[in-house]
## 1
Amino acid sequence: MLLSSIFLTTSANGVQPARHIGSMEPIISTENLKKIYRIGKVDVAALRGVDLSVQEGEFLAVVGPSGCGKSTLLHILGGLTPPTSGKVLVDGNDFSYMKDAERTKFRRHKIGFVFQRYNLLPTLTARDNIAIAQHIQGDGFNPHRFEAVTEMLGIKDKLGHKPYALSGGEQQRVAIARAVVCEPKLLLADEPTGNLDSENSQVVLTMMRTLNRDFRQTILMITHDAEAASVADRIVRMRDGRIIWD
Ligand code: ADP
């Protein structure tokens, strides 16, 4: 049986309501954020004091050379790893004051993730890979939202396929659908076009643009690709663990 039929509920809205850019409270706020990894007796300073503020509705690209701290920043913002020092608020919440279960719940409800390697479950169809996100979140299957998201991402005719029968671009579009189907306040994308050829990259980037513009999805995307970054409406450049240009 399909997960979508197991978790079918009658909950309503398909498309997120419009949000205002520039509301008083930023969705992301960091202050002097530092992260030091200790490898044996060696300290690696991945972040050396990052101050960043992102408003709801923004599409922000964080760019910079490999090793400059982009992934570390994304992982901290997603509550996947704690900072060594400094302050980080996501939607007004500080992960450091949350217990593990609370942090997990917060992530499920507020943050969607897209990774370079798609991370789809290989034994499930595209439909169930997306529907399972709604199941895990616990609010049940929302058919309107599912319809709106899969339509926008152009994957409706691929929903019965398992990941191995999809191209890289299609797999990434399924992964994006999974990330946003629960209407997260924030989408964190880690090199979403890193595994794609230029044609598929363009398709995925155009869809992320649409997601931001038409669904008012706040997006923070990290990339080392200047072309990918150009679809965002704000670009932050990092180097050696710091923001050097905004
Ligand atoms: P980017 O995403 O820009 O490539 P990262 O955030 O992955 O940069 O890495 C920043 C620095 O932190 C690099 O020097 C990297 O080697 C180091 N680093 C990242 N993750 C770890 C880790 N888990 N353990 C030790 N060092 C790490």
Note: Residues 1-22 have pLDDT under 50 and may be disordered.
## 2
Amino acid sequence: MFPFVYQSLPTRVVFGSGKLSELAQEIERLGARRALILTTPEQESLGTHVAELLGDRAAGVYPHAVMHVPLEVAQDARREAARLDADCCVAIGGGSTIGLGKAIAMDSGLPIVAVPTTYAGSEMTSIYGLTENRLKKTGRDIKVLPKTVIYDPQLTLTLPPLISACSGMNAMAHAVEALYAEDANPIVGLMAEEAIRSLGKALPVIVERPDDLAARSQALYGAWLAGICLGSVGMALHHKLCHTLGGTFNLPHAQAHAIVLPHAAHYNRQAAADALQRVARALGGSEAQEAGQLLYELNRKLGIPLALSELGMPVQGPAQAAQIACASPYYNPRPFERQPIEALLERAWKGLAPA
Ligand code: NAD
């Protein structure tokens, strides 16, 4: 057994269909009395429903969360929390809404109860992001880790099938990279394999039958485990590339993750052979099958766009992104090499298979 460090993060997790109904109890458990409910504009009616559920424990609804937490929105939300004398935040939505909760917590220390409705995994991490002058800065602070997370699969039934597929592959990426992380450890490895297995089984069912609650539960369970992976160990090439694509070309987060993942796995196929064999096994493949290829085939089966060009990345994008990523690389089992990374992005841009 190789030496390792394992640090668990102290979040209480309540999982199950219909568990949103226990939100008031969970807020009470934290000793809070006035919750500010955060949503995106698209999910405002869900926020109103939550406010009704909470009665006089709801301080108000703030329905202005948007992607990548612009500083002005964070500042406005912080003012609103102070004005309403809120003593906790309920962030109900995807990574954008939970990110706004984190920006408030960073400033005021207000505890967060997160109710995720996508598979992005932000609720299980102490990673925050804030965008100022089009530049997104990220960091880690235990203050922003949600105190409680309620996973209610019923809330994911409205997530459109294609977005569910992309968001699920975003979660898959956390688990894949956790297996070859610099600080990988056996416990996170178990969670990663289980996450890959659960998502690999559930996502094709969701695409065919979006209202299949059993598949929705299995995907959300996988997403939870993948979120723990993201929060526990460092990420590598794949996350660096997606961060670059999001920041430089404003590509949609989950879709970019889905497209790049097979290519990043292929790039690491020799340097992280054991880890990628575990990925292939968890996806139901044989020893001889390559993880990158299996992930590409899964994307195709899910009907996910396969080409970064389809997301609006310009033709000179691969060269530009390779240069930016290589200028400040993350740890990766195979060192960042400019030409092969550009070639990888070229294939992803065209939607070709990774091999
Ligand atoms: P999102 O939160 O931006 O949501 C996308 C859209 O889907 C929004 O309009 C939202 O209202 C809608 N939506 C969400 N759930 C829905 C549902 N169940 N039914 C119908 N519509 C629904 O997307 P995301 O992919 O969850 O999050 C992306 C953001 O999260 C990015 O900014 C990313 O950087 C961040 N993120 C952060 C971390 C972290 O650890 N800090 C982890 C993952 C993602």
Note: The CA atoms of residues 129 and 138 lie 4 Å apart.
## 3
Amino acid sequence: MTKTLLLLPGDGIGPEVTAQTVRIIERLNAEAGLDLATETALFGGAAIDATGVPIEEATIARAQAADAVLMGAVGGPQWAATAFDVRPEAGLLKLRGAMNVFANLRPALCFPALADASTLKRELIEGLDIMFVRELVGGVYFGSPRGIEDIGGGKRRGFNTQSYTTDEIVRVARVGFELARARTGRLCSVEKANVMESGLLWREEVTKLGASDYPDVQLSHMYADNCAMQLVRAPKQFDVIVTDNLFGDILSDAAAMLTGSLGMLPSAALGEAGRPGLYEPIHGSAPDIAGQGIANPCASILSFAMALRSSLGRPDLAERVEGAVAATLEAGYRTADLAGGTQRVGTAAMADAVLERL
Ligand code: NAD
């Protein structure tokens, strides 16, 4: 049955890298039995210029009706001064909320050919393969009350609320357990149960879920500050890490950078089973290189591979795409953001090399 992918190329290098992923889709449709229809809609600054808002309601409805959504990137200096609620980034938060994608999967994977591109020693990151599961629609970024209030004497107080319910913890922990079960069977849950009640609840609920539904998964717990230290000391000790929105934001960025370039890193945001996932490179719109044809398309291509695995029911093709990217790096092809290699190429030529190996 034909599946549908909504493309939201966005701004800056977003359309440039998304166009290369479309070439991969066309090839898989033509030669590998993928039956995927694509639609495209305006998003971010491009949508603001055309419609006055970063995402139209009709686009949100199309996203909810699709099997998966692939984003490029949004934002840029030309929209940085617009009101907060009509900035490109506001459209992204609105889309995530409307799709209720509560589990953010961010792999930190070291391609063998890029082992020397890391800031850590080769032996620490060679073979690294961590999957972060970050809670995406709750916690301190969303909790209320929040605000800045006057406390007299010319002084103010800024405050946010960290809050998690049993249901919010269990649904994201379940994603972590399922992934761990499909990988090496190890899950590390990260919080600050020593100093935060929400962290204590997190630990208790994850422990309970593990004992009742996932006795085969080896569950460990770690405080977030220790996890930060362990990620740069001995990152290969981790397989799947599940954590809240705030700690996940920070720790997954640190882990991602261990592997080299922003231009290589995909992500997925998943909701309830059967609902569409939202896939996007973790990089932004890179205004400094937009329009030059030099952006690395691999993060977008690998985000599509995650969609093949988690929303489109084709894990076999996900492996083929990931294998083709790895083989392209092995063959020495590098965009400007990647060190080493033997052949410097632009955006389209990098995708040509991936297509050749697909
Ligand atoms: P950025 O990720 O756009 O760029 C950071 C640096 O990495 C730049 O030097 C850029 O040239 C480089 N880079 C990024 N992706 C690359 C690629 N695929 N190939 C080669 N080099 C690449 O972050 P920024 O400069 O802080 O932000 C620029 C704009 O993007 C801002 O408006 C920001 O709000 C937005 N942004 C959007 C998203 C998103 O859409 N999810 C994420 C982050 C930033």
Note: The domain at 1-102+271-358 is CATH 3.40.718.10 (Isopropylmalate Dehydrogenase).
